[in-house]
What we know:
alpha/beta, 2 domains, two-stranded antiparallel sheet, single chain, elongated, Rossmann fold
Amino acid sequence: MEKKVPFNLDTYDLKEELDRLRGKVKKPNILIAGATGSGKSSVVNHVFGRDLTKVAAGEPVTRGIHQFMSDDIAIVLYDSEGYEIGSARQQAYADEVIGFVEKAQTKEVAEQIHLVWYAINASMKRVTPLDRALIKQLNEATSVAVLLTQIDQVDLDELTALRNELADVVPEQAVFQVSVAEELLHDPELRAHLDWERLVTWSVEQLDQSLQEGLLMEVHAESEAMLKLKRKKANRIISGYVASAGTAAAVPLPFADAIALTPIQVTMSVHLFRYWGVKANDDMLKTLIGSTIIPQIGRALSKTILLNVMKFFPGANAAASVINATVASGITWAIGLAINEVAYRNAMDSSKTIEQLLNSDFGSLFEQFMEQNPVTKKKA
């Protein structure tokens, strides 16, 4: 049997691993459309917490549509220049947008337009015939969200009238009322009338599962609802590493190989940190893994293996000191959930650093998730 080489963090190429993970993320393509002054830039800046057109390289793909993409950004944004209501350019804009989307939908899935966010300035108090026609045509090609922007400038009757104008154009659940007015965003009672969280949730659910991670990585999640959605969707990332751990232990391994953090579990940790947007350069991230996660996992695994593995996993052979696929998968699942929960708590309350949370919470969370593991429940 081939001897396992112990994992060595000092020789682990974190930069190479981050580059590999960036390359693996499938990026959703999002087109932002609407008339000039409809609030397209404000929508992008609010949802993503930054102006992606400033941090990503842009290049024209048609006369009026620019593509913005970067290796460090997990979505591809297509920004249309808009049109002046009442101008001769209106129909040309519609033809250009429709032509671009319809052509894209004939290509490979990775090159298709996966979402359209169509902005309408509510303060104009009308939906133009061009908007109606364009939204209808786009909705036949892909998923379209209609965003009624600047709703702080209209009253309830005017907002209801706008929604009624869209009733036969798109489903009601695909219409979202939004604003970036500070007085609405910072007042909990008023913010409840905004659909920012619902827009992101709807958008994520329109995407294939393989594309959801990219959108959630870039969303500026500031509300509890958004952070809970992000935590939930991280389970798909964890599941991939659980499967890899099971495969790696298809031939039973010595317990010692499980006590040391494996490359699979290190990579999962890095992946989850990147998913949650943990702000750290490569050296800091490597130090974080070495000084907090590895010791915590080592202590938690030692305790679990010595005291509980026979209780939790019928496939563990204590006498022979081996660990099988079931045990390896269960341990990896608990590690992933614990890291995910720590990152969620850090995002909810930044008064504690992620290092402090890993030191204070990781061990107990690991044990908790081991108890809740599906394999554990099945045995019970």
